[in-house]
Amino acid sequence: MERRRVSLTTLGCKLNATETSSLAEDFRRYGWDVVPFGSDADVVVVNTCTVTANADAECRNAVRRGRRHAPQSKVIVTGCSAQLRPESLASIDGVVAVVGTRNKLTIADHIESYVRRETPLIDVEEITADDFRGAVSSPDDGRTRTHLKIQDGCDYSCSFCTIPDARGPARAMPFEDVLKTLQDLDGHTEEVVLTGINLGEYRSGTHRFVDVVRGINELRPSYRVRLSSIEPNTLTDDIIDCITSSRTFCPHLHIPLQSGSASVLRRMRRRYTPELYERRILDVVSRRADVCIGIDVIVGFPGETEAEFAETMKFLEQLPWSYLHVFTYSERPNTAALQGEPVPADVRRLRMTRLRDLSARRYEEWSNRCIGQRRSAIVEAFDETAQAWPATTDNYIRVYLTTDVLRGKRIDVEIGPLVDGYRSARPVGEAGPLSSSLELRVLS
Q1: 338 in a structural domain
Q2: The CATH number of the domain where 150 resides is what?
Q3: pLDDT digits (tens, 9 = 90+) for 74-129
Q4: Where does residue 119 rank: exposed (0-12), middle (13-18), buried (19+ CB within 10 A)?
Q5: Looking at the 3D structure of the chain, how many domains does it have?
Q6: Residue 439 forms part of a structural domain
Q7: Can you spell out the DSSP letters for 261-278?
Q8: Residue 178 located in a structural domain
């Protein structure tokens, strides 16, 4: 009998991508062929995002695009948009099921009942604190890193965010299962990225996120470990100490800020002040001078004045960081932020441009200071445009190698200057013994 084919696509965050990869592996276990999105397939799965208004539009476009390439396919929509707006998605031609967050990772288990339906099924249920299902990205999804989901949901009430409604309350993988999974991954990957909606709020019984970090250090795995993102109010002194002194954790932290203005942070209902944020950044950098720090910033939040935006610019200019992820505020239904005075779209775009220009300058300056350093890097697939092999260092510098090296391999590289817009590097041999030096061979 001819094997059936499924294609999957992901919108949004790395956690979504991890879950899509895990879902693809489930389909393989049931005997399905997983084919690239845009190929002819019997079933198309679209894992959606709802962080911005544009994400919702992208969701509908992805459904239509998958259907266009496979007109006879059955389309299943899942993820955050599916949880919040199921009826709208169920009305799209070709959709046979809209599956909410709670049952997302059981789609392959129920696929037979989904594809036999004559009318669309809306399988969306309330999410409870007990509804946790872990996910590990599959080596067959083309990634050079393994993403491990250990936390889901959020109990915060940020005034601009719908994630608590889409993902449910904070919940986590049992602590013993986290350590067991990490042990099982040893020898099968070069890097594990810990992911979650609010990673620092990991709670399993009496265990907290610092216990996960300590447990990983005690395991001493052969791979390196990276955090996807962590809120500044959950980045405690103990966590900072464990990560910055570790030979396992990458010297790279992504710490959302959203605004450098205290008044805007209050309207956003964020759980920290600019002063606390600054202390966290300075503490990290004082312990690891080679650390890469990434920051999320939202521009154009309702009521954001020129003076408040200037506070953000000034705040960022005085802090040591490496790159920004800049987002334009996007109106989301049923959020408290909608009550504020809208910032004109052209003002939002101008502020975004100014911050992105600042980010580009800062990243180039920071990576230039790393020229001559030897870093551990994982090689990725050949880049036809650059005509080189990209690799990502432990401290998150993307470099390009002209020497043929094995994809997914971890090697030591010496960082070079920019060449035609690409950060050059050369291999300096296989990854060797760990060293305590922070100037040359840093922590792998």
Answers
A1: yes
A2: 3.80.30.20
A3: 999 999 999 999 999 999 889 999 999 999 999 999 999 999 988 999 999 999 98
A4: exposed
A5: 3
A6: no
A7: -HHHHHHHT-S--HHHHH
A8: yes
